Structure formats: structure tokens, C-alpha cells
Amino acid sequence: MEKENSKLEIFCVTNKRLKFLENLPYKLCWVGPFEAPQNYLRSDTGINIFAKEKYYSELTFQYWYWKNMLDLKNKNWIGFCQKRRFWSKENKDLNNLNADITKDILIHPKKEWENYESIICDPIFINDIKKVKMIKRGYKSILKNPLPFFSKKKRTIKFHFDMHHGYGNLDKAIDALDNKDRNEFKNFVNENSSFNPHIMFISKAEIMNKWFQDLFEWLFECEKIFGFEVLKGYDTTRLYAYLAERYLSFWFKKYTKNLNWKWIFYDSQDI
Q1: pLDDT score, position 97
Q2: What is the maximum alpha-carbon separation in the chain?
Q3: pLDDT in tens, 245-256
Q4: Which long-range contacts (CB under 8 A, 24 or more apart) does 108-116 make?
Q5: What is the CB neighbour count within 10 angstroms for residue 218?
Q6: Which has the closest alpha carbon to 195: 203, 185, 204?
Q7: What is the pLDDT of residue 2?
Q8: Cα torsion for 256, 112, 120, 187, to the nearest 10°?
Q9: Euclidean distance between the first and final Cα of the chain, in Å?
Q10: Cα–Cα distance, 96 to 145 (Å, whole number)
Q11: What are phi and psi of 28, to 5 degrees?
């Protein structure tokens, strides 16, 4: 049963029009190089990092929201989703989606949240890797430590990140992290084989503010290491978003009482 008096504000970040959401109480948020549709929130006004959108992806809007819209007096639940990934209405696996996807996605806060401070995506596991791919993309890691080649338990967040987003980049980034999290986050990525994906979360304003403070302070330090010119292709163009995705899993587990929640992949054909 949902609490009648509680409210949920969902901001859906997109670079394409999502007509099927336009009649829902979602706030549609525009990123990307093209002109925003009418009534979509833009992220190129006020205090913004819009010029870095290519590298920060949906974080471009989240930063804008933090600097220009976040009200610490707001007592509602506030959350983010993105153009192809949405919060599920119920925290259970859906075998088949409704023809009308809006019947399956979250609109109102849930009673199950009452004793929690944050909602994060159900985790994904990244240790089911074909050996041929490990040889092709992870040979540097395997030469240093061959155990991941033979044991799924040793295929950690760090091993996966080194394979797909630049060998050693995660270690360099963690070295730039504040002392209060550095060693614990390093242990987290070296010991875990799953993380909570998509930079999606739901929380109250006070927690959101603390998260954004820690996140962007770190990412701006990372800019001094990686810059932008060398970030190219799938592997590293969105490096700052990939880093944030891993840090989110650690941060919300360390600093909040969190609940994992189901999410839905849906690729709208709206044009």
C-alpha cells in the first residue's frame, strides 16, 4: 500500500523526446546537443556543466539540478531515471511488460520505503566474462594476476573497469578521492563483483545534497588527471559517468540505509 500523503518527484534525463511520459507526473530533463522539446527542463542555464555533457552524460542534468533546483527544505522523495531505464512500480521481476509501459513504471512512493533513506537500482553482476574477451581486453590484468581468468569470484569491479574503461584509470581516480572514502572504496572495487547501475537513485534532499557534494568534488579532481582530449570511444568518452556509477554503489551503502529496487529497460520508439 502506498502512503497517500507522501510525494515522489522523478526526473527523467534524456536526449530524445519521450512522448509516452509527457502526460505523467514525471519531469523530463534534456541533455545533448539538440534543441530541447517544449516544457522539458534544460541543463544549459544557470550554474551548469553543459559543455561537458559528452563526458558526463546524465550527470550533466543532475549537476544542474543540484546547483539550480535542489531545495533542502523539500521533504519529498526525489529521484532520477533515464531515457531507457525506469524504476519499476513493484519491487519484483516482471516476466512481461504491459503494452502500455506507463502501467509498469513507478509513479508514487512505496510503503516499503518507510524505514529507508535511499533507493538504488538492483545490482548487476559483471563477473560472467568469456575467456576470449578476458584475453583480448584484460590481458594486462591477467598478466599481473591470473586468478580472475580461472575464478569468477576474482573478477571484480576493478577487473571489469580495467578491461572496459582503461587499464589503471580506476586506481588513478580513487587516488584523487577524499581520505574519508579512499581506502574503503578501493577495497570495495577490489572485493565486489556487482554494483548498482545507471546512476539512478531516490532519496530526500539532504542526502542528495551530500552525495552531489562528494561526487562532484571527486570528479572535478579527476578532471585534473584525465582531462577530456584523450577520452574517446565507448571505453573512455563517458569516463566520469562510469566512475560515478561505481562510486554511487559504495557511497549510498556506506552513508545511507538503502533499499535495492527493480528497474525496467524500455527503448521507446517515440520520434
Answers
A1: 86
A2: 57
A3: 999 999 999 999
A4: 108/2, 108/6, 108/8, 109/2, 109/3, 109/6, 109/7, 109/8, 109/77, 110/2, 111/1, 111/2, 111/3, 112/259, 113/77, 113/202, 113/259, 114/3, 115/257, 116/256, 116/257, 116/258, 116/259
A5: 22
A6: 185
A7: 47
A8: 50
A9: 36
A10: 42
A11: -90, 130
Q: How confident is the model at residue 5 (pLDDT cuts 50, 70, 90)?
A: low
- Give residue 263's pLDDT: 98
Residue at grid coordinates 542534468: 61
Average pLDDT over every residue of 193-221: 99
3-state helix, strand, coil in the chain (%, to 5): 45, 15, 40
Distance CA 211, CA 181 (A): 12
| Count of Cβ atoms closer than 10 Å to residue 164 Cβ | 16
All three cell numbers of 16: 530524445
pLDDT of residue 72: 98
For 232, the grid coordinates are 574517446
Q: What is the pLDDT of residues 257-268, one digit of tens each?
A: 999 999 999 998
Within 8 A by CB and 6+ apart from 262, the residues are 87, 88, 90, 91, 92, 93, 94, 122
Can you list the alpha helix ranges (DSSP code H) found in 37-130?
53-56, 59-68
pLDDT digit string, tens, across residues 27-66:
999 998 999 999 999 999 999 999 999 999 999 999 999 9
Amino acid code (one letter) for 251 = W
